[in-house]
Amino acid sequence: MLSRHAEDLYWTGRYIERAEDTARLLDVTYHGMLEWSDKDVPQAQRDLLEVLFLDETFDGDLSDTAAVTEFLVLDTDNPGSITAAVERARLNARGLRDRISSELWEAINTFYLDLRARDLRADIERQPYQVYRWVRNACQTVTGVAAETMPHDDGYRFLVMGRLLERAEMTCRLLDVRYHRLVDSGGAATAFNRWAALLKSVSAYEAYLKEYRAAVDPIKMLSFLLLSPNFPRSVRYCLRGTEEQLAELLEPDRLTDAQRLLGMVGAKVEYCDIDSLVNADLGGFLDELQRDISQVGVAIDRHFFHHATDLDLHFYISR
Amino acid sequence: MHAPVFSEAYADDAPRPHYRELVERLEKLGTEELERRSRLVESTFRTLGITFAVTGREEGLERTWPMDLVPRIIPAAEWATIEAGLKQRVRALNLFLEDLYVGPQAALAEGVAPRWLVESADGYLRQAQGIEAPEGARCVVAGIDLIRDSEGVYRVLEDNLRVPSGISYVLENRVAMTRALPTAFANHDVRPVNHYGAMLLTALRSIAPPASSDPTVVVLTPGIANSAYFEHAFLARQMGVELVEGRDLVVEDHVLYMRTTRGLHRVDVVYSRVGDEFLDPVVFRADSLLGVPGLLTAYRAKNLTIANAVGNGAADDKAVYAYVPDMIRFFLAEEPILPNVTTYLPWNPQDMTLILDRLDELVVKPVAEAGGYGIVIGADADRQTLDRLRRTLLDNPRGYIAQETIQLSTHLSFVDGKLAERHIDLRPFVLTGSQMEVVPGGLTRVALPEGSLIVNSSQGGGSKDTWVLEV
Question: Which of A85, A120, B295, B407 is buried most, with the most CB atoms less than 10 Å from its CB?
C-alpha cells in the first residue's frame, strides 16, 4: 500500500487511542479529586498533564481545574487535546476514504460531528462522567468498527500498530508519574483509593481484582500493568501485538530495525525483575522504556513511511 | 418578457406520459412525507460525508450535497438521440485533438477553426506537441453540458474535456433515490449507472502503454483540499485502485513509480484530476507541489498514459466551442446531431457590433472560467455592470464569448417543502477507451433559487437523479 496511507492510518490509530486515554485519565482524576483534599488538586493536575506529556505545554493555573480540563478537552491549539486528536483523526480518515471501510469513515465522521455539535464546556460542568464515557465509547466504537468492517490487511495492521504503540507509551508514563506518588501516600484507605484510580485509568481495575483478588499491592499492580500477557493495556501485551503486526507486514527472512528494537524492548520488559526495580531505579527503567518505545516508532516511520531510496534526488520537490 | 419555458414533466398542465406514474406517486405521498424523506436523504449524505466545497463563500467550506427528491426521466428514444449526438461530438473532439497534437493539423490548415484562436487557448500546451495517445483516446472522460431550450431541443452548452467532475454524485444520487422513493423506482425500468467504476477502469486499462500486460492504474488527486476530493476518492474506491498525490509518485529513468510500504511500484496509467499545468514542475509551473518532476518526459517516452490527455484544454475553450459543429462536419462528414447554443465571438468585428448592440439580451461568459464564475446575464444586469462589461469586451475580445439567452427547461422539484418548477441542465459523461460508451443519464443540476438560471453546484445548485428508461 501507499506509504502515505500507511502513515495516515498509523496516526489515526494513535489519535483515537490518545483521545480515549485522555478521556479516561480525566474521568479518573476528576472523580479521584472528589475524595481528595483541595491542597492535592494542583499536584493531581500536574500529574495528569505529565502523564499526557503536556506539563510543559500548559501555562495556566494548575489549581484551576476547569482550565486544565478545557486545555485537555477543547483546546484545538493543544495538539494533544481530545478535540484536536479527533479532528486530526477525521482529517486523516477523510484522506483515506478510498482505503478504509465506509463504516469506519462514518464512525469517525459522526464522532467528529457530534463533538462539534455538543456544547462540551457546559456538558463537562454539568455531567463530566457522561462526557468522558461518551468519548470513550465513541473511540471504542471506532476501534470496534475498524476491526469488524476492514479486511485485516496491511492498512489495518498500521492502524493497530499506531494504537498499540500509543497505548504502550501511555501506560509507561502513567506508571512513571503515578507510582512514586502512590508509594509515598498516607493512610490505607487513601492508598487503596489511589491505587484503584490508577488501575481504573487504564480500565484495569476489574481485571486486576479478578487476577489477584482484592489485594491492591504495588508490586502486583506494577507487574500486572507491565507484564500481563493478556490484558490489552499492559505494556507487554502492546509490544507483543506490535511485533505480531510487524511480522505480518515484513518478509520473514530479514529482520528490520523496527523488529530488532522491538525485540530488545520486549525482552527488557518480559525479563525485568520488578522486586528489585521497585527498590532501585524504577523511574529510570520506565524512562528508558518510553525512549525505547518511541525509537520503535521512529524505526517504523523510516522503514515504511519515509524510506530513503536512491530515487530521492527529487525528494525536496516531491514532498 | 421571457420566452416560453419548456417544462420537462408537464405539457398543458398535465403530466407528460412518461411522468404520469411518478407525479401520481408524489401526490399520493404528500408534501409532509416528501419532506420527511428529503431530510432522510440529507442526513444520509451528511453522515456519509458526501460533500463538496464552495469557494469564495464564508459559510462552511464543505456543504452537504443537495439532492432534489424528484427524479428526471428521459424516455429511451429521446436518450438514443442524445447518446448518438454525444458520441458524435466526442469522436470529433478526439480527432481534432489528435490532429492538433500529433497529426498534420489539417483542421487548422483548412480553416475549420482559426489557428491563432486555438493556439491562444489557455489549455493549449505546446509542451504536449508530439505526445501520442494510445487509441487516439484523448478525451477519456468527457462531460458535455446539455440544456433544453424553449422548444424542447437539447443543445450543447459547453464541453468539459480536462477534469470534468460530477459522476460520483450521479452514483450516490441513485443510491439515495432507491432508498428515498423505492416504489417509484421499482415501477420504472431504469438503466443502471452503478457499473461506472468498472466502465472507467476498462477504458483506462485499454489505453495503457502497449508494453504493460497487467497495467497498474492510479487516480491522481491534488489532495484533500480540492473541491472534488470526495469524487477522486470515490472513483479510486469504485475502481479498486490507489488514490495518489504527487508526493506519492517518483519518476526514475522515465518510468513512473509510487512509494509503497513494500518499496516502489510501477504505474502505467494515471487518471489525473490535477490540472495540466500542475502536473510536472519541470515542464510547467515550477512552483507546483501537486505534480511529479519528470512525469511529462515519462509520458512522452510512452512509459505511461495520462488520462485525460495533456493539452485537451485546446478543445474545450469556450471560444473554440463555437467551432465544434464545423469539426464534426470536417472530420466525420456528418451534420451535428446536437446543436450548439448560438454563440458570438467578440474578436470578430461583426459579432462584436452585434454583441454590443444586444448586450442586455445576451449572456456573456469568460472563456477560461468554469463553475459558472464570471457569467453575466444581460437581462438581469444593471447599467453599471453592462458598461463595465462593454469595456472588458473591448479590452479583451479573445477572453469572452456571448450567447443567446436560453430559457433552460424547468423540472418539477421539491424545494422548501413544496413541489415547484426549477431550471435544470444535464451533464452526461462519455468514456473513450478502445471503445466509446455513454453513462445512461448523467448529472442533472437544478438551480434552486426560483427563476435562477445558474445550476452550478459551486453557485448553490442542487441535483437530481436522472432516469433513462429501458424502453
Answer: B295
C-alpha cell at position B200: 472507467
How does strand B249-252 pair with strand B255-260?
antiparallel
Give the residue carrying C-alpha cell 512513571. A176
* Chain B nearest CA to A106, separation (Å): 6
Q: ∠ CA B341-B350-B148 to the nearest 5 degrees?
A: 10
Query: How far is residue A32's CA from residue A40's CA, in Å, rounded to a whole number?
Result: 10
Q: Is residue A219 within 8 Å of A182, Cβ to Cβ?
A: no
Query: Tell me: the pLDDT tens digits for B205-249?
Result: 999 998 888 999 999 999 888 888 889 989 998 999 999 999 999
Q: Report d(CA B294, CA B27) in Å as an integer.
A: 60
DSSP B408: -
Residues of chain B whose beta carbon is less than 8 angstroms from a beta carbon of chain A are 46-49, 219, 223-224, 229-230, 233-234, 236-237, 242-252, 257-261, 263-264, 281, 289, 292-294
* B298-331 confidence digits (pLDDT tens): 999 999 999 999 999 999 999 999 999 999 999 9
Phi, psi of B462, rounded to the nearest 5 degrees: -110, -165
Can you tell me whether residue B167 is helix, strand or coil?
Answer: helix
pLDDT for residue A187: 63
Q: What is the mean pLDDT of residues B327-350?
A: 97
CB pairs under 8 A between A and B: 80
A-interface mutation test, from B259, B278, B287, most A Cβ less than 10 A away: B259
> In the predicted model, is pLDDT for residue B60 greater than 70?
no
Report the predicted TM-score, pTM, of the whole model to 2 decimal places. 0.81
Closest CA of chain B from A2, distance in Å? 4
Name the residue among B469, B446, B159, B182 with its Cα closest to residue B315. B159
Calculate Rg over the CA atoms of chain A. Answer: 20
Is A2's Cβ below 8 Å from some Cβ in B?
yes
According to the model, what pLDDT value does residue B125 have?
Answer: 95
CA distance A229 to A239: 10
**CB of B326 closer than 8 Å to CB of B112:** yes
Query: C-alpha distances in angstroms, A162 versus A157, A228, B3, B237?
Result: 9, 20, 64, 24
Label residue A184 by pLDDT band (50, 70, 90).
low
CA–CA dist B399, B394 (Å, integer): 10
Backbone phi, psi, residue B164, to 5°: -65, 135
Task: Supply the pLDDT for residue B460.
Answer: 64
Report the 10 Å Cβ neighbour count for B244. Answer: 22
pLDDT tens per residue, range A244-262: 999 999 988 888 899 999 9
- Work out the burial of residue B417: count CB atoms within 10 Å of its CB; fewer than 13 is exposed, 13-18 middle, 19 or more buried: exposed
